[in-house]
Amino acid sequence: MNSIQFQEVTIAHTKQLLNNPSYIGDDLLLIDDLANLPWPHNPRRINCILLAFCIEGKAQYSIDTKECMVKANDAIIMSQGTITDNYLFSHDLKGVGLMMSNQFYREIVQNVHELAQLFLYARTHPVFTLTNEQAKTLVTYFYAIKDKVDEPDHHFRNDVVSAIIKAMIFDMSNVIYHQQHTTDQRQTRAEAIFTSFIELLEQNYKVERRVSWYAQQLKITPKYLSETVKQISFRTPNDWINNYVVLEMRVMLKNSTMSIKEITEALNFPNQSFFGKYFKEHMGMSPSEYRKKN
Question: Which helix (H) or strand (E) holds 71?
Answer without folding.
Answer: strand 66-71
